[in-house]
Amino acid sequence: MKTFILALTILTLPSFAQDYTLDKETGKAVPSFIGQLRLAQGKVFKRAQGKLIEVYSGERFFEGNALVTGKDSKAKMMMVDESIVSLGPEGEILFKKFSFKDKENRTCEYELIKGQLRGNVPQKLKAGSINFKTKYSTMGIRGTQILVNHQKLKNLEISEFALLEGKALLHFSESKLTTLKPGEHVVVMGNSEGKTGKELGSLGQERLSELKATTLNEEKEFKPFLPLLSISEISSTSVLSPLIQDQNPAKEKEVSPQGESKAPKNWRESLKKLNEELKKNQN
Fold this sequence. Notes:
This protein has 283 residues and is mainly beta. The protein has a domain at 74-231: Sandwich (Jelly Rolls). Helix content is 13%, strand content 44%. A hairpin with a 2-residue loop joins strand 10 and strand 11. Mean pLDDT is 81; it is low at 1-13 and 246-268.
C-alpha cells in the first residue's frame, strides 16, 4: 500500500504526470509516451495534431503522432517496449495504435505512409500483437528484424516486406496468410484501377548478410535499409507485370482535320526528300 501511495504521489508531480500514468492493477508507473527519438540525421519532424514541427534527439512521441524525415535524412526511435524503429530519407510512419503495460503485454500498430523502414523487435510476444501496415498489406511479427518499403510511382502503389530473422506473417487483401522465412522478400503492388498482386522472392544470401549488418551497433548507428524497387527490376514474366502500365506513354500523333498526321518527321528523311525534289527539278 505504501508503494502505491508513493507512486501516486510521485506521479502527481508536473514533471511526471505528463509522461507517466499509474497502472492500478500492478501499481507500477507506465509511460504515457510510446517512444523517444534516439538518433537524427538531417531534418527530422513530428506530425502531431495537424502540425509538423522539427524535432531533435530526445523528443518523445505519443500515440497518433507520426515521424517524418526530410531529404537525405534518417531517424531512429527507441520504443518503450525496447523495439527499435528506423526511418530512411523522405519517409513517414504513423504510430497509429500503441498500448503498453509491460514487455509481455503490448499492442502496437505502425503504418508506413511512405519511405523505407527498418524494425527490430527483440522481445517475443503473442502473434498479432505488433503489426506493420502499408496500403494493401499487414505484417504481423514476433521478436524479429524486418524491412518495409512503400512508395507511389504515378498510378502504382508498391510495398516491399523482407524478413531478416525471426517469424512474420503477411496478410494481403483477402488471401490467406503468408508465413515469411528469413531471407524472403515480398512485393505487393496495386494500381489506380484497384487491381492488386503479390510476388514472393528471395533477397539472396549476399544481400541478406549486407542488410543484417551484424557488425554495426543498432542503438548507435543506422543499419542499411532495403533499396526501393524500380519498375525496371520487375521482369516481364512476373505475376506483377500486368499491373504495370507504361510509366512514360508516348504521345499520340496529333491528327489534322483532313486526317493527316501533324507529327514532326525525322529531319534526315525530310532532308533526303528535299534533295530528291531538287534533283528532279534540275533534270
